[in-house]
Each structure stands twice: as C-alpha cells, then as structure tokens.
Amino acid sequence: MQTPAHPQDRHEYPSHWEADVVLRDGGTARIRPITVDDADRLVSFYEQVSDESKYYRFFAPYPRLSAKDVHRFTHHDFVDRVGLAATIGGEFIATVRYDRIGPGGLAASAPADEAEVAFLVQDAHQGRGVASALLEHIAAVARERGIRRFAAEVLPANTKMIKVFMDAGYTQQRSFEDGVVRLEFDLEPTDRSLAVQRAREQRAEARSVRRLLAPGSVAVIGVGRTPGGVGRSVLGNLREAGFTGRLHAVNQAFPADLKEVDGVSAHRSVRDIDGPVDLAVVAVPADHVPDVVTECGEHGVQGLVVLAAGYAESGPDGRERQRELVRHARTYGMRIIGPNAFGIINTADDVRLNASLAPEMPRPGRIGLFAQSGAIGIALLSRLHRRGGGVTGTTGVSTFVSSGNRADVSGNDVLQYWYDDPDTDVVLMYLESIGNPRKFTRLSRRTAAAKPLVVVQGEGSAPQGHAVRATRLPHATVSALLRQAGVIRVDTITELVDTGLLLARQPLPAGPRVVILGNSESLGLLTYDRCLAEGLRPARPLDLTTGATAADFHRALSEALADESCDAVVVTAIPTIGEGAVGDAELAQALRSAAEGVPGKPVLVVHVELGGLAEALSAAGRTAPQATAPASGTGGGAHPLPLAERPPTAVSHSYSRLIPAYPAAERAVRALAEAVKYAQWRREAAEPGKVPEYDDIDEKGAAELIGGLLERGEGLTLGVEETCALLGRYGLDVHRALPAPTADAAVTAARDLGYPVALKATAPHLRHRADLGGVRLDLADEEQLRRAYSELTELFGQPEELRPVVQRMAPRGVDTVVRAVIDPAAGAVLSFGLAGAASQLLGDMAHRLVPVTDRDATSLVRSIRTAPLLFGWRGSKPVDTPALEELLLRVSRLVDDHPEVVAVTLEPVVVARQGVSVLGATVRLAPPPARDDLGPRTLPAY
Fold this sequence. Notes:
Largest sheet: 8 strands, mixed
Distance between the termini: 15 Å
Mean pLDDT: 87
Number of helices: 27
Strand content: 15-25%
C-alpha cells in the first residue's frame, strides 16, 4: 500500500493501525486505514451493498456515491477525519469512519474530544462480527487522537447496528428524537467492555481452530503419482483413519485423464474441485507454496496445514518467506497451521481426521495434545498410544495439533478451542517458546479453572522458526507466573504424560493426606519417603504382606477410601508366585471395584513388572476427571468463574473407573503431588481475593509528579528526594539517608536524625553487602560514629569512592527485598524474597502478576523457601507479616496505577515484630510500554 501524499493530509499514513482480525465465524479479515488510492475499491464495495443497508446508512435512498462522496470518504487527515476498511482478498467488505465534532455537532478539531461514527457492512458479510471488530479498532484510533466519546445516530429499524453499539460494553446514553436513536458512549475501556472483547475473541479464535480440526472436506496438495512421499503418506493416513468428509488428491503433474489416486478423486488444481474445500494440506516444496495459497484462497479454502520446511527455521531468507506466507494467506481470510508442521488429528467419531505424518490414528479419548515440535509430538502420541513401557496402559486423544513454526495458529488459539470443547477434559502442551506470555497467562488462568492444563516449557532459547517477544524475566520467574495462573508446570515429557494420565483418569484430591497400602513393605516405605519429599502428608504404609489376596487388596482399599482422613490412595504391588498367587486381572478387578465404591478420591498403583496388571487397570472407558468431593469446611463446589464465562458441561458418558499404573514410586507420587497442588489452586481460585483500597493513597498527586519528571527525558532513575516523594504518595515511607562526605558531616547528620545510627557505604560494589564490612550498625554516639568512619575509609578507600551515608537505626528484624518490574512480554511483575544470599545466590524469590490481591500477597510471602524465618523459625519471634503484605499491596497499586513506573526496588525492607522499615529504594520512570491486551483484538503482526 502506498503512502498518500494529498496536501490535506496532516499525518503520515498510520501503518500501525493495520491489523488482521479473526471474525465471529472463524475467518479472518484485514483492517486498515482508507486512503486516496481506494476510490475504485470504495465504489465497487458500495455497489454490492443492498438498498436497505444504504438507506440505514444515509437515512434516505442513496443508490450510488457521487464523485464528491468518494472524495470525502477517501481523503482523511488521520486525526479529525479517519476511515477504516475491513478487507478480504484486497476488496472492501465493510467501512467505518469518524468525524470529530464540537458543540452543536459541527466539524471541529482538537481539543474537541467527541466524534460522530458510522458503519457500512456488505450484506454478504453481515452477522460475521465485522462491525464489532471495526468498532474496537476505530475506538482505539480515536483514543490515540484524543477523542474520548463517540456519538452515533441510527434508525430504529436498524436493530443489528443498535445491537453492535449496545453490546460493546462501553458506558452509554441512549435517546430518541425526530425518529432517530442517538447513542453516546465513552471510549475508555471498562471491565465490561474488556470482558465482552475477550469473550468475542475466545469464540472467534475457537471457531477458527474448529474449522481446521473439523473440516467437511480436505484436499491434500502435493500427492505423488507413485507410493511414498509426504503428500501420498498424508493421503493414506487420512484414508486409514476413516475421514468422514470428502477427500481430494491434488498435483499439477497428474495426467489430465487421471481420475483417482488410491480411490480418492484426483485433480490437477484446487480450482478443478467441484464443491467447497474446507482444509488444504500443503505438501509441496516451499517455492511452490505461494501459487498453492493463491489457488486455495481463490477457491474459498478456509485453512491450510503447511508441512513444507524451508521457512524461518532455515535463516533470514526463510523468515521473510514465512512472513510473506502468512500475509498472503490472511489476504484471503485463511488461517495456517505451520509451516514445518507435523499435522493435526481429531479422533471424534463424526470427523476421524488424521491430517498428519502419524502413520496410526491415536485411540479416541479426552486429552487435548499440543506440541510445537514434530519430534516431540511423535513421542507424546507414541507414549499415550502404546501398551507397555513407561506409563503402561492406554489413554486416548481428543485432538492433536503440531504447529511447527506456529507462524499463525499458536498454542493460544488452540487453548481458546479446548476451553469449551466438550470432548476435551485435560490439556497437555509442549511449548518450546511462548510468543505472547501475557495472553497465554490470561487464557491459562481461565482454562485451568475449568480443566487441568499441564505444560512442559522449554528452558533454552526459542527455536529459530519461532517469533517470540523479548522478555527480561528468567525462566524460573515465567514458570512461577504460570503456576500462579493455575498451569501445572512439569519439567519432562515423562512427567507430562504421568500427570496427564492421573488427571484424565481420576478425580482431584481434596487434600494432601495419602494412604499407602500394598504387598511390599520396602516399596511402601519408598513411596512414603517420596510423599514426604513432595510435601504430601502420608500415613505409615499398610503392609498386606506378599501373601495378600485380591480380596485383601479390595478390603484394604475400601477401608482406606472410606476413611475421612484420607484424600488419596497409592497401592503398591509386586508379583507373587506360588499356589494361590493373585492374578493380574483378578487384582485389577478388585482395585477397580473398591475404587468405584468411593468415586471421589484418586487411586494410583505403583507396580513392579506387572504389565498384565497395568493393562487390566487401563480397561477402555471414559477418561474424564470426576468432580472433587468437597473437603469438610470448604463450602462445597463453588465455581471459580461467573456463570456466563463457564465452558459448556461435557456430555455425560458411562464411566468405568480407570486406575493409572506407574513403574516407579517417584513418578506416581510426583504426579499425585501436582494434582494436589492443582486442586488447591482450584479451591483458592473460587475466591480470588481483592485489591484493597487505601484512603491515604494520592493517585492524582503521583500522576502529576510522574508527568513533571518525565518531561526531562524518555527514561530516568529518580534521585533520593524524588523517590521518597513518589513512594510517599502511596504510603511507602523510606528512612532518610543523609550523605556523609566527611566525618564531621556524618556527625552532623547523626545529630539531625538522632542516635543510634547506621553508617553505610553506598558504592555499587559495597551496596547491600554487609558481609563485606561496608555497614556499621548501632552507633550510639559521636565517638563510635567517628571510629566507624575511620575504619571504613581505612579498609575501603576515600569517601569519594565509598559514598558513605548516615541513617537512623530501624528496629531489628528480617531483611527482605521487594521488586516490581514491567516486562514488555509478560507485563508487570511483583517479586519478593529475603535480602542477601537467599535471593542473590539461591534465587529464592517468589513472583506474582500485578495487580496483586490480598490473597496473592499472603501467598507471596509464604512461597519462598526461607519463609519460616518470618514466622518464628527455631524459637525466634515471628515478625509483622501483615505489615509486609500491606507494603506489597501498596507497591502493586503504584505500578498498576502508573505504568510509567517501570521498575521499583525496595532493599532492604526490614520486617520487625512491629511494622516494616524501608531503608533503601530506587525507582525508574519511562514512557509505558504498549498494552496490546487492552487494545482491540488483533492477530500477531507479520
């Protein structure tokens, strides 16, 4: 698109307003500013609009646009007059414009902050959510240009347009005059408008993935004329799986008279196919893909699975080729799995899609599986499919997506689909990278409140083919934030499968109390030790002896499950020999029978060389996790989401209790521990806490101070006085530290502050390093102060190097550190730990996303490994953790209220038996990073 050069244009073409969006039906469109080059497109678009829609737009018959109209609607200054168009295939399907107005509705310029807005949508595209998407984008443009309020006049009969405005969630006023409905609404995002926007985002993105996973017809492009090759293999996999829709084989090299390949209709081009094609599997070399995309787009194909390699994973040229692929496909409203993808699978009986390189269709089940890596996808499918080895038994898959370079469809999109997919009860994801951590965290929190989400996240750098936002957060911090969002974070593929098996087959435990029983004392003790190591509360193992019969196992398991002090049972079993030895099938039936008698508690088996037992325990049946029986005093089954946001309830199935079997105690116990922590998160998520209000916070005064300071430059670290002034606006008092360039100056400072005092060296290499001797405490008088000053200068150098300061002594307590930082990818993060070696050497820090609730603050303080030092460890007195939690909440409020505060460090914060003392603080200001989660819905830009 060329930049317009009309003399009336007051701004350069705003390319950052261009965006791709997913529409209500799952298709995509491009939104961009209208320019002087669009005159012919506008006229063509208007000719395809019905007379009724034209009447609703202009309140009168208006069959065609005059030359003056075309000029007006294509010439904008991008400030007071702005027009946006939604396009597919380069052609307009809808337009929206605003005109800034002043008092009386006349044209105006800034500082007028109201504008009149009007839409026109082609009839063929009405009902697809185009107007709602355009409203989000034109509202964001208006806010950027200083417009705070929209006005719209709509005929009462135009109910669709009235509904678009009314459903948007903005604060509105509605009036009726002279036969016209006048709507006025503020453009500032509200909680309701954000909720509406995110609900629309979820429905649209879920439907876009559903169109890929449940197509009515599939074309495999690049099917070889002879057996072998990628295309022919995928075609065979689709046939063997029993795909229920129409199947086509495509290759431009097919002879003109070839009608079928392997019983599938053959075509030289997608254009030759009679009827719609919903999904195209592209198995041609990368050089030929652009022509294929054009053919598919012109034929109306809805989505592509691109198996070809040679894109971003191959270097800079491939990266540009990948960008062009995405731009090209989105021009036609198509979404892409890949490139360099392994494929997709849907085991539903009414679909049976295996559009992948997996030679066998996985068994149907209720686990959704996502892997960016094809190799890892193969490993996961294999482990869940096979019998014997690893975690034995079988577990079925509902859907599988291997996204390859995930240039378009990502884990976030698939998570949107699985959230309300009634056929998926557990989600397993292997992520080599997270492209949008802020959005992934938000989606994870919502999904985890409805069904378990287990994730393995790569620790190294992202694969070359992945577009990943830069983050300054360590891997451990990102993992902690994911856990806060309810994600079950595991470290290996084995743990992913182990945990998924348990969550798919068993109910969630109501607590950490574990009963261990079995026919091996040593295996029981090993399991007991692992439970203690994982933070569970096991009872002493019950040894049934090696002579135990199936009836003994049944009786012991039934009694354990009936015990109110038991939340879960681990059964240990070793093979027995001799007359009367219990058989595998007999033992499995006994365990299943006892477990079905008390269905609210999970049961796991640790077995040694009992392949037959594991297979018997994995008898076919439903793998949905059952509702957790409420623990006493928990108040029952409160759902953590409002009714309108809950996913549909899965259809009831006949349920046969499946008991997962593990070949090692540590694997079973680790999976159980993860289930216990997840269940606890679910209970806490039902009551998420609140962000408290503090009467003494001066938000307006802080904003004025920040605005004045930022006028100095783009970013700056505040001085001591400025830091204290800003923090003071939020009730955060910092102990004064007076400079002491000489011994006499130190004495004068001590007199001003009052004895006892502390003398500190603040040079960078000595700051916060009491272990190096750069701090002298409890100096009671002038003599002690002068002696300490002399010692510091003798040990470390001249005062100019040491930068000594004098500070009034704070009450003794536990030294802690509080930090807040705005990460460009993850958002604002609040961190807490003990000062010194615990945080610096051992990395013992806990993290929470801002804004922090009162519950978050409480858990944050208790999440570090050294937390016992705050609560009276080894006979010491507990310190004032409520005061510490309030400080954390105030820091969170500061960063959340003022995104210009990009970094805060309070160190040390001394937590005494009564109150807290902030002895050091630094604050950094900068223009706030863009918040794409608060803006209009968009797909990642390419």
